[in-house]
Write a structure and sequence with these properties.
single chain, alpha/beta, Nitrilase/N-carbamoyl-D-aminoacid amidohydrolase, five-stranded mixed sheet, 11 helices, globular, Nitrilase, Nitrilases_CHs, Aliphatic nitrilase, nitrilase activity, C-N_Hydrolase
């Protein structure tokens, strides 16, 4: 018999400004926030999209021909995985026994990626995923991610998944996480962009995902000070595009805010997640269970990492932090290539059967 889930998990969502001069300065702000959250008894904390070293706000308001210097500076301060930054975050997670979800600009040789990292409370890096499709201006900055990162991982606080910004407008990406029985969803947005309408749209999006998936959503957005906005652009009209758009929030599976959302300034929201509410919601509507109709509608995902070269002599390797490996080693689907091979064998057998 499965006993009712009586866990209470204390979560934090951080709205915070980066250090636009130095990535290590932003790292210090992250570590300070983790320490502050630990003092409040927080067990899982979420930071904004690509917060380390900073979100490329410059690319939203400047034409590509004028962004070269800032783009190069982003390369200079971007995060390598693994590396000193990830080691520092892992140490903080281990020291405070806290699950940490952090957005970074990941540098992989000559490319940058919008990446999300999930560290477990023992300091292990459970997942590194990349935003599957950078949005609009972001395509000049980051490469594309792949399906290998659409995973939910087991952590000390439960099954955690993550998406960045407008990935939440991709219903199949969200469904991929829902189908893996996500319990806590980490959402990350840049903040300080577009204006109030961005915050309104964001709220609709995260509340809908909470309702549809029957999970908690912890959403973090960034913040820019007036001085930072003025530094990014001397043009007053363009500076207006770098205001608003903040909706740091914690939402329960019934789509309700657990605490009032934070829409301006820096701060940290803290709320207790009653995990029994997941079953309460799913009893009525489980989108990937009794309310699903997989014989009519289902999702097929290519979860192989996208790599530029794969030797034919080497079989495909499991993707990093596979949700199947983390959740249930016995529940492993064959790789599509293996499935195709099996199908070929069956066809061969059928064709060789005497009539």
């Amino acid at each position: 018999m499965q006993t009712p889930d009586k866990r209470m998990v204390r979560a934090a969502a951080v709205q915070i400004a980066p250090d636009l001069d130095d990535g290590m300065g932003t790292l210090e702000r992250v570590l300070n926030a983790i320490g502050e959250a630990a003092g409040k008894g927080v067990e899982v904390i979420v930071f904004p999209e690509t917060f380390l070293p900073w979100y490329p706000y410059f690319s939203f308001i400047a034409p590509p021909v004028l962004t070269g210097a800032e783009h190069m500076r982003l390369y200079e301060h971007a995060v390598s995985v693994p590396g000193p930054v990830t080691e520092a975050i892992a140490a903080a997670a281990r020291r405070h026994g806290m699950v940490i979800v952090l957005g970074i600009n990941e540098r992989d040789h000559g490319s940058l990626y919008n990446a999300q990292l999930i560290f477990d409370a023992d300091g292990s890096l459970k997942l590194k995923r990349r935003k599957i499709t950078p949005t609009f201006h972001e395509r000049m900055i980051w490469g594309q991610g792949d399906g290998a990162g659409l995973q939910v991982v087991d952590t000390q606080v439960g099954r955690v998944g993550a998406l960045a910004c407008w990935e939440h407008y991709n219903p199949l990406a969200r469904y991929a996480l829902m189908a893996q029985h996500e319990e806590i969803h980490a959402a990350q947005f840049p903040g300080s962009m577009v204006g109030p309408i961005f915050a309104e749209q964001m709220e609709v999006t995260i509340r809908h995902h909470a309702l549809e998936s029957g999970c908690f959503v912890v959403n973090a957005t960034g913040w820019l000070t007036e001085e930072q906005i003025a530094r990014i652009s001397p043009d007053e009209k363009l500076r207006r595009a770098l205001t608003g758009g903040c909706m740091t929030a914690i939402v329960n599976p019934e789509g309700s805010h657990l605490v009032p959302p934070l829409t301006s300034g820096e701060g940290m929201l803290v709320a207790d997640l009653d995990m029994a509410l997941i079953t309460k919601r799913k009893r009525m509507m489980d989108s990937v269970g009794h309310y699903a109709r997989p014989e009519l509608l289902s999702l097929e995902i290519n979860d192989r990492p996208a790599v530029p070269m794969r030797p034919a002599s080497v079989p495909p390797q499991p993707s990093f932090g596979s949700a199947r490996d983390e959740a249930d080693p016995s529940d492993r689907r064959p790789h599509p290539a293996a499935a195709d091979s099996g199908a070929d064998d069956r066809v061969a057998v059928l064709r060789s059967t005497p009539r």
